[in-house]
Give the backbone structure.
Amino acid sequence: MLTRREMIKDTAAAGVIFTDCALMAAAPARAQSRAPAKKASRLPVKVKGKRVKTIDIHAHCLIAEALALLPADEAKKTYPQVKGSRQFDIVLEERLAGMDAQGVDAEVLSINPWWYRKERDLAADIVKVQNEKLAELCAQQPDRLFAFASLALQFPDLAVQQLVDGVRKYGLKGAAIGASVAGVEFADPKFHPVWAKAEELGVTLFIHPQSTPQLESRFKGNGWLSNVIGNPLDTTIALSKLIFEGTLDRFPDLKVCAAHGGGYLGSYAPRMDHGCYVSPQNCNPDIVLKKKPTEYMRQLYFDSLVFTPEALRHLVAEVGASQVMIGTDHPIPWNEHPVDHIMATKSLTDAQKIAILGGNAAKLLGIKL
Ligand SMILES: [Zn+2]
């Protein structure tokens, strides 16, 4: 059994940060011990005394004007049933205060796609108003707010134009996409024109899962498995498809960044390298990959939303420190101390920490720090 001192040491090593309130609620014995509570990082963030700018590439909002295009009850249901949902409607001072408290200098906003099953005209209107409003928000705080464009990917020809407009007309930093489009995988050739345009523009596609709807019945019950398993699994499938169907070979310069540390992909990646050896009849002889499946992971980008220093250490070991950047899910409280998480990852050098805190995202998205 651990002594209290050992438990505190272990907790600190695991990078668990207690705010004063959480300290009282979660560890009353420790509060009574008068052990100094570790304060969460706020702005300005420093590494070895030097100011470092931080960028969170995974933050959300909704645009009221786009939701107004829906019937009222449907618009209401589009808000996720989670803590922080109210803050999806951005009130600027509140949003900036939240970022200050997290030690985040700049956020890259994205809207999770809820319009992939809408008909063409409505989808076009939703995306247009969202991209316009995202651009307006960013213009109000040009040093602190950036955004990924929305795309009506179910109509790839439309999505190509929306991507061009999003980047050139509205100054957005690429596009946020789901992990499939109404059941169609990203590896489907119908999406090739969109990936070709993203590659040509040199902009990033941010993959964000939406559960794995095909497994809905198995996710029922306690624990919100549709999210805690469904979301990382959805991302894992999306990335695996891009690798195995040869999409990343076809578009070798495509910049793809995956939410939630890429889901489970990094946790059990080497199995990918063995599948076609163990069971060649399950692999398409017409698809000859240019690299080992795991090697593609080093050209993909991932956010840091993997919770513990050990998980971050492992992700970095699999994909490289140059491929990882802060992701919080703000305003949903999944990762409220993103800076402390990175600072507590002892396997990282100071240069790697600085890169993950903001340098990698700045380089990938062309953000001046
Ligand atoms: Zn998210």
About this structure: Residues 58, 60, 208, 259, 329 surround zinc ion (CB under 6 Å). The two ends are 47 Å apart (CA to CA). The chain has two domains: 1-39, 43-365.
